[in-house]
Design goal:
Layout (H helix, E strand, L loop, with lengths): L11 E9 L6 E9 L6 H13 L3 H10 L1
Antiparallel strand pairs: 1-2
The structure holds zinc ion (ZN).
Length: about 70
């Protein structure tokens, strides 16, 4: 999963994060990536927070999709 945008030739920072599904609370091991420039910036932190708040695991995402 990528936070923010990564240009084709930009260096990437890979990091691990514990993410919880907002629907069922399941812990999902998160291997995330961001561009080196973006990583650690205020914008990055904000986007990461939003990402965590909206995250759904694969199962819940499927459920959501079939419902609508
Ligand atoms: Zn879930």
């Amino acid at each position: 999963m990528i936070i923010g945008k990564i240009g084709k030739d930009e260096k990437r920072v890979k990091f691990e994060l514990e993410i919880f599904c907002n629907q069922c609370g399941k812990k999902v091991p998160g291997g995330l990536q961001a561009s080196e420039k973006y990583y650690g910036t205020e914008k990055f932190k904000k986007e990461l927070e939003e990402f965590k708040q909206n995250y759904l695991c694969g199962v819940c995402r499927d459920k959501k999709r079939t419902k609508s």
